């Protein structure tokens, strides 16, 4: 495992050092779990008590926290962001593939850039374009006419349908499906008539898509996921959705079709967003929220009820059903008073 001096890491962050700049760091760790050779961080003051007992060789911290600290530290304004960048710098995650495996099936019309790696039993379809440094994990499939930008990584068993374009520096985790059919049907006297989904999927740069997440292709126009978006595991993005740049969506959230979500939004886990609506930039939606209408103003939105004793929940459920009757009675009383 390669190690670096504290000076090298601080220079990487353009940050200051307190203590011994020659100490060697090879990995990251938590405050209470790190040992010699590891670096940790203090981003929340409630964990200050762990500083004295931490065995980490160095800690990332703010100038204020560093004032009375006697150990080795990298001093910067945002220790958590610094920790993320150091974790990237020290990352030991293996490649999704490190060569072109003999069992990979690559169409003659496919175009491969420099340093492309394709794992065992992967399939690359007709007219596919793979940029420089692309990694395709074992068992993955890239359908015809799809394009994958430079340095994008597909882990094992990812399925990319036809006419899907991914940008540069994306990460697609195992089991993700990009470009599957949207849920488009017409009903003729009780019989469902399938509407061919002839649009594609367009994904920007630096997008990360979690395991077993599905992004449907557009019905006619494309489904779009813009630069810097992060999607957690088991997220459903339906046909013709547009997800704005740097928006984050947590696990098990379902976004119905033809939804536009703005830039820099944060959507918690297990949310349900109804179709054919829009959410403006800078919206934060709490976990388990049902969104059924337009959101035009930035802010925090919530709708889920908190867990409670079952007997109390049953009573409150009955009372909830009585709300309309209660409202009508109050309205009648108000009218009588007037």
Give Rg in angstroms.
26 Å
In total, the number of strands is 38
Shape: flat
Distance between the termini: 80 Å
Determine the strand fraction and express it as a percent band: 25-35%
The secondary-structure class comes to alpha/beta
Q: How much helix is in the residues?
A: 10-25%
Uncertain regions spanning at least 5 consecutive residues: none
Main sheet attributes: strand count, strand direction, barrel closure: 10 strands, parallel
Strand sequence of the main sheet, in spatial order?
A: 8-11-14-17-20-25-28-31-34-37
pLDDT averaged residue by residue: 96
Separate helix tally: 5
Task: Walk me through the structure.
The chain has about 350 residues and is an alpha/beta fold. The chain is built from five helices and 38 strands. The chain has a ten-stranded parallel β-sheet with strand order 8-11-14-17-20-25-28-31-34-37, with no helix packed on it. A ten-stranded parallel β-sheet has the order 10-13-16-19-24-27-30-33-36-38, with no helix packed on it. Strands 9-12-15-18-23-26-29-32-35 form a nine-stranded parallel β-sheet, with no helix packed on it. The longest helix is centred in the C-terminal third of the chain and has 15 residues, at about 325-335. The model has no long low-confidence stretch (mean pLDDT about 95).
């Amino acid at each position: 495992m390669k190690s670096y001096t504290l000076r090298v890491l601080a220079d990487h962050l353009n940050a200051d050092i307190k203590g011994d700049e020659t100490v060697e760091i090879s990995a990251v760790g938590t405050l209470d779990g790190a040992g010699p050779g590891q670096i940790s961080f203090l981003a929340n003051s409630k964990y200050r008590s762990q500083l004295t007992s931490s065995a980490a060789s160095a800690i990332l911290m703010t100038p204020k926290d560093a004032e009375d600290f006697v150990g080795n530290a990298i001093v910067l304004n945002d220790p958590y962001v610094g920790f993320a960048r150091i974790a990237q710098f020290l990352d030991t995650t293996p490649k999704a593939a490190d060569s072109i495996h003999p069992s990979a099936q690559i169409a003659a019309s496919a175009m491969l850039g420099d340093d492309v790696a394709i794992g065992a039993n992967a399939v690359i379809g007709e007219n596919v374009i793979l940029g420089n440094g692309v990694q395709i994990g074992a068992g993955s499939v890239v359908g015809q006419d799809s394009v994958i930008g430079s340095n994008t990584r597909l882990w094992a068993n990812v399925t990319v349908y036809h006419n899907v374009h991914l940008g540069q520096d994306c990460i697609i985790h195992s089991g993700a499906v990009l470009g599957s059919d949207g849920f488009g049907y017409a009903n003729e006297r009780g019989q469902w008539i399938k509407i061919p989904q002839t649009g594609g999927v367009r994904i920007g740069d630096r997008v990360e898509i979690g395991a077993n997440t599905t992004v449907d292709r557009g019905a006619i126009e494309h489904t779009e996921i813009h630069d810097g978006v992060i999607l957690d595991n088991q997220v459903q993005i339906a046909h013709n959705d547009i997800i704005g740049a740097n928006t984050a969506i947590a696990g098990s959230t379902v976004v119905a079709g033809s939804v536009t979500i703005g830039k820099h939004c944060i959507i918690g886990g297990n949310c349900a967003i109804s179709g054919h609506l829009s959410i403006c930039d800078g919206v934060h939606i709490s976990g388990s929220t049902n969104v059924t209408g337009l959101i035009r103003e930035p802010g925090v939105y919530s709708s889920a009820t908190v867990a409670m004793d079952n007997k109390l929940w049953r009573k409150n459920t009955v009372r909830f059903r009585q709300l309309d009757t209660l409202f009508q009675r109050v309205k009648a009383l108000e009218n009588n008073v007037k």
